[in-house]
Amino acid sequence: MTKRRIVILSRNSKLYSTSRLVEAAKQHGHDVSVIDHTKCYVVMEKGKPQVYYGDHPLEKVDAIIPRIGASVTFYGGAIVRQFEMQKVFTTTPSLGLIRSRDKLRSLQFLSRKGVDIPKTAFAKYPSDVKHLIKQVGGAPLIIKILEGTQGLGVVLAETPKAAKSVIEAFYGLKTNILVQEFIEEAGGADIRAFVVNGEVVGAMKRQGAEGEFRSNIHRGGSGSIIKLTRREKSAAIKAAKTLGLPVAGVDMIQSSRGPLIIEVNSSPGLEGIEQATGIDIAGKIISFVEEGIAANKRSRKIGTVKPLELDDSESIEDESLL
User: For residue range 116-142, what is the model confidence (pLDDT) as tens digits?
Assistant: First the structure.
């Protein structure tokens, strides 16, 4: 295998996911470095897009692995986009990153492409909160802050009165929210499917702590290996492809009508999935990087390899929404 220069865009080299990717890249014989993307900057001139770190440009980079935090999505997306302009392969295209970080936007795309999701409503100033509640099947229901991450800003309203009070409180604070149906049969559990290059390479079932409806491991949930059904695998792969993410953590819940996608994570953590499954997910990502660099050099196209490319009309349409 040819030695390549891989840059991991991460603000903390000690994080489990970052350190595992470094370890896997070195095991594959590559030159790998971790660079804080918030300390990078772009320089633009005719025909010469560059990314600088300190006083020197980052040159001869074969691939980047973005690990962009939600709080710096806009800036991180700009840095990734500049690397794309240099024809550097990326595991997370800038467009996919931006799509996935907007909960409303991502659900709109998934819905349009026929991906099953929980019924969801969004309104800025609903004249009738009761009608909004009715649209998602009534209480109990889930209320989500659009900017929330890792289970923060997610509320279960068990009665119509509680739902009305919470919704009105958020609107009073001028906070954008989604109102979503509650899937009772899920039992406070969800599934995280890890997708790499159009394939589910590992999956775990996350169970919320006792009395907790959120299954996030950061909220005290636990993870265990699970074998997905064909329908669940298909849903995860379709969701990742719809948002243009070759590497993604797809979260879904099991319902009486089949798997329902609740979120597609563009910077999925490796710790929980690797510990639950015993699978070398980091190694699979590096293998994908190797394939991507080779395909990128052959085609000289920006971003992803062919199986996960978006058609031109969709790319143009989505760019207009940025």
Answer: 999 999 988 777 788 899 999 999 999
